[in-house]
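For this section, I looked closely at a protein sequence along with its fold in token form, which I now present.
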Amino acid sequence: MKDMEEELNDKMSFLGEFETAFKEEIHTDILVKPGNNGPPIPAHRALLAAKSEIFKNMLDSDDCKEAPNEAITLPELNHDELESLLKFLYSGSLPIEKVEKHVYSLSVAADKYEIHFLQKFCDRQMLNSLSSSNALDILEISDVCSNLTLKDTALNFIVRNMEDIVFSSKFESFALKNPHLSVQITRASLMDIKNRRNAI
């Protein structure tokens, strides 16, 4: 058991050298730009291409290969969100405060760029933190990402906690922004009432 732990620690330390290369900008060969005109972040083409087929296609484009344009832009992320995304790609994890702050934007980015491990990571974080205060946000993100499992879980939670959520301060703005989701909540609630009546 001790030998296995030592081997795991050695492996984690070995893989951690990728993160060091990112932090210290060792032989970086591409700039990744956020969408809010923030400063670009140096990264490594090979790692980005290995983590995402979408990134690979972007990096293989003729525009990206030309010297003045050795950069890609991720327009949906601000600088802090982009930095968190890249840190995750290099290390496979994030500090909890970064996860809590950026889980929604990272989930959308993971879906768009087909970073499956990050998507699963974000899903776990959202499911573990699901509450009356964030259920509407999680429902909205699950809809954007077409994540049916997450969406069903959030929708069922909302139905079970209708009074707390529907009469909350954020529900009105949510309903105006997402009328189709409001309809789905109403239908799910009515179906739940019907099922409970039939069970009596």
User: Anything to note?
Assistant: The first strand starts at residue 30 and ends at 34.
